[in-house]
Amino acid sequence: MRADDLKCRVEHAIATHKRKRFCVIACHVLWRELCHFAAQAPHVFDFRFLKQGLHNTPERLREELQRAVDECDGHYDALLIGYGLCSNGLKGLRARHTPLVCVRAHDCITFLLGSKERYRAYFDAHPGTYWYSPGWIEDSAMPGKDRYEAALKTYIDEYGEESARYLMEATETWISNYSNAAYVDLGIGGSDGYRDYTRACAQWLGWQCDFLEGDTRLVRNLLNGDWDDEVFLVVPPGHMVAPSFDERIIEARAISEE
């Protein structure tokens, strides 16, 4: 065997030895971003995307996440969780054989902003913000004219126009809690259509509209395996995720402490 061929084989063996196999279990609203940057990461990935909206019923989110973790447990070097705390949907999440890697975040928008600190700073400066992103626009009915007209038609078809108007007033009052539409993405594809849609929604609602540049660091580091403790929580086997009720957001707790 030639020396250069042997060198190539040794280098390949070293690279393969360092390469890890991860399973990403995440909300579908992040599928574009996670797949895009996983393709640039040095590791091997499988994906489990759960449908958007589970955070609205945290108990169901917890059940679906735990089911996905149980099915993947023991088959990967780590399970990467593409959720924030999400209304305590992560509370109690555990694995028996495989580390869980979670982001210290309240929700998925932190993945796009790049840090919980940036999320907090924007939230403090812009109370009443509703977030828009490519995944949210694709996967859910965002506040705006389209959502309103679709809901109104559904109510009219089922209850008649007079009752429909009353139901719309009763069910859409939560929108008055918001005054700002903020759009953020990681710049991985054409975003003009999403931006135009966000602007149109804000105009129809009478909200302010803001466009933020995303930060890829958090997503890249999650997928690359760069898990700094201030940004990520690595939950050892036999431990579970628990709210920390401080700036860390989440912590690992031994299951015996449950």
Question: Describe it for me?
Answer:
With 258 residues, this protein is of the alpha/beta class. The protein folds into two domains: 3-112 and 216-257, no CATH class; 114-213, no CATH class. It is built from ten helices and ten strands. It has a five-stranded mixed beta sheet, with helices on both faces. It has a three-stranded parallel beta sheet with strand order 5-6-7. It has a two-stranded antiparallel ribbon with strand order 9-10. It is globular, with a radius of gyration of 21 Å. It starts with a helix and ends with a strand. Mean pLDDT is 91; it is low at 6-17.
| Class per helix and strand makeup | alpha/beta
Please, what is the average pLDDT?
91
* Count of alpha/pi helices: 10
Biggest sheet: strand arrangement: 2-1-3-4-8
The number of distinct structural domains comes to 2
Taking all Cα atoms into account, the compactness measure Rg is 21 Å
- As a percent range, the share of strand residues is 15-25%
Major sheet details: 5 strands, mixed
Number of strands: 10
Unreliable parts:
6-17
Order of helices and strands: HEHEHEEHHEHHHEHEHEEE
Any idea what the shape is? globular
Amount of helix: 40-55%
Cα(first) to Cα(last) distance is 59 Å
